Amino acid sequence: MKNKPVIARELAGRDVNDAIGHYLKEAGEPAALGFVDELERAYAHISRHPDTGSPRYAHELNLPGLRAWSLKRYPYLVFYVNRADHIDVWRVLQGRRDVPEWLVETQDG
Length: 109
Known about the structure:
Largest sheet: 4 strands, mixed
Mean pLDDT: 91
Structural class: alpha+beta
Strand order of the largest sheet: 1-4-3-2
Helix content: 40-55%
Radius of gyration: 13 Å
Order of helices and strands: EHHHEEEH
Shape: globular
Strand content: 15-25%
Number of helices: 4
Low-confidence stretches: none
C-alpha cells in the first residue's frame, strides 16, 4: 500500500503549537522536541496504515470514518479521517480533556 500524504487542518496545527508551547514552558525543549518526534512517528504510521486507528469516537459522536491514534509517550490523540487521496487530520488533542466536546466544535467549525 502506498503512503498517503497527511494533511492537518488549521485547528490541528493550532493544537500542535499549543502542545509544543506547553511542553516548552513546563518541561523544556527536550520534551517539546520529543513531542514533535512522536507526532511525526504517528503521522508516518497513519500514512502507511490509516485503518489502524480506533473508531471509538466515530461511534460516540456519529462521525463515520473518524479514527484516533494515540501517541506512545505523550497523552495526545491524533483524530483523522482516511480520505481517498490523503489523511485528513482534524485535531491533535490531549486525551485527558473532554474530547467529544472538542470534536463537536471541530465539526461545527
